[in-house]
Design goal:
It is a single chain. By secondary structure, this protein is α+β, with helices and mostly antiparallel strands. It contains five helices and nine strands, in the order H-H-E-E-E-H-E-E-E-H-H-E-E-E. Strands 4, 5, 6, 7, 8 and 9 form a six-stranded mixed sheet that branches. Helix 2 runs parallel beside helix 3 and helix 3 runs antiparallel to helix 5. The termini are far apart.
């Protein structure tokens, strides 16, 4: 029997990894269900869903690239948010869908409790990423999700619970995995050190999910 060649094995493994990465990054963007609505139709949808919001003017910014289409300031979608946040109507409509179809059923499954509050670090922010790429926060199409407060008062936080082998940790991993069905980009503490305390969700043009 011929002796296996370690170098060949390493090359094969490297090639397999490159193909897996290429398959992930080359996937087309996930078309958001709210993308085809006009601004007026999107606002009407928020009204129908009972989202608590105020229509806002585009934020004044020294950077012309920081444009938010159809901006609204939200205090609660299906679930109240920990603080008011400015976002594109399109993002809010998709996040509301995510809350109803994924977040609340997952909370019931894992804890037997509904979610009382969405805890977040923000939505709109006129900035770029660490790599210099335009951030989807600059268009109100992203949220940094820090965790949740359950109906019984328990807190489930990404910073504290993501790495634990507990029901809280399993729940957060399930949330990130489900988020890949609703958002084009999902980044977690497994992505890099910038996301050690939150799950990043956005509706940008790139399809990339780090969730397992």
């Amino acid at each position: 029997m011929p002796t296996p060649n370690p170098l060949s094995a390493r090359r094969a493994a490297g090639l397999a990894l490159m193909l897996a990465v290429a398959a992930c990054t080359a996937r087309p963007p996930l078309p958001p269900s709210s993308s085809s609505r006009s601004p007026a139709q999107c606002l009407a949808e928020l009204d129908r869903l009972g989202v608590r919001y105020q229509v806002k003017a585009e934020p004044a910014s020294v950077a012309p690239a920081c444009r938010v289409e159809n901006p609204v300031e939200v205090t609660a979608a299906t679930i109240p948010w920990s603080r008011p946040a400015l976002a594109s109507c399109r993002f809010v409509a998709e996040f509301d869908l995510f809350e109803r179809e994924a977040l609340r059923p997952l909370a019931i499954r894992y804890f037997g409790e509904d979610i009382r509050t969405i805890v977040h670090f923000g939505t709109y922010s006129c900035r770029t990423t660490r790599t210099g790429r335009e951030s989807e926060h600059a268009h109100g199409l992203a949220m940094d999700l820090a965790g949740f407060e359950l109906a019984d008062g328990r807190a489930v936080l990404v910073k504290e619970d993501w790495s634990k082998r507990s029901v809280e940790g399993r729940f957060l991993h399930a949330v990130a995995a489900e988020a890949c069905r609703y958002f084009n980009e999902v980044l977690t503490p497994d992505s890099d050190r910038d996301h050690y305390n939150h799950i990043h969700l956005d509706l940008g043009p790139y399809r990339f999910c780090v969730a397992r």
